[in-house]
Amino acid sequence: MKPAQVLMLLPDRDFDPTESSTPWRLLSAAGHVVTFSTGSGEAGVCDQRTLHGEGLPLLAGSLRCRPDNRSSYQAMERDPRFQQPLRWVDVDPQAFDALLLPGGHAPGMKPYLESFEVQRIIRAFFSREAPVGA
What we know:
Blueprint: E1 5-9, E2 13-15, H1 17-29, E3 33-38, E4 45-46, H2 48-52, H3 67-78, H4 80-83, E5 86-87, E6 98-100, H5 110-114, H6 116-127, E7 132-133
Parallel strand pairs: 1-3, 1-6, 2-4, 3-5, 6-7
């Protein structure tokens, strides 16, 4: 089976480390190629409160990453494709087989959620009925 070319769109900051690194780890382990894209074209930075649990309200401790997910995120940070993502504006959706849209709850997600470029990319995947995970 030919490896899939998977595009993962991320905001510049505040995305959920588990929602991004777990699919990256599993897809990479299966031999697929995951390419990252951020608004700025710089490596994204996850929600640090979720990653480390510091500053979370007492009853929100379950939002903290488990140690295995922190390890996955740290491994993803070392991936050259993560370190040098495409800019959203430069993405050609036709170059990819599938799309991943990790979420998050912190304020840095807002530009990602409201981006016309992100919406353009998503529409292109849906219009050709390509797999989209969110």
